[in-house]
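How a chain folds remains the central question behind the approach discussed here. This step matters because it turns folding into a mapping between discrete strings. The sequence in question and its structure tokens are set out directly beneath this paragraph.
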Amino acid sequence: MPRDAPTPPPFESEALDRSLDRYLAWGLVFMVALIAGFVAYRVREPGLRHEALRAQTTSYRAVGRRLYAASCAECHGKRAEGGSGPTLNAKEFLKITTDAQMQLLISGGVSGSDMPAWSLDYGGTMTDEQVRQLVTYLRSLEPQAPSVPDWRKGKTAAG
């Protein structure tokens, strides 16, 4: 009759096993909390982005209005109604001109006209951010812009 082989003592004590189980359970709890946080962030983020964009647009519009008064009103009129330069507050101009086109016109100026380059890149005095602020201000005029078919002629078209 064979003898029963002696069983060796356990490799890890029960206390160590329980300790490890506790760490694994807490790790699982923290992982679930982290995943819940990511889900909450994803739900809330679009609203935060929309609010930030609205606040930035409001700020850009105000700064753009001041920049316009200081740099553009002399030629384009106080309310962009035209002067020696084209009427910028014209439904036709605002409808056919994209924001990128306005930025290029302001940044680089218009060759063969009195419109100078305003961007620092072209020897002007405005940063790209200031040019974007001006475009935002001009775009804000669009909802109430009057129809001025000859907007390129400036004050002579409005009169």
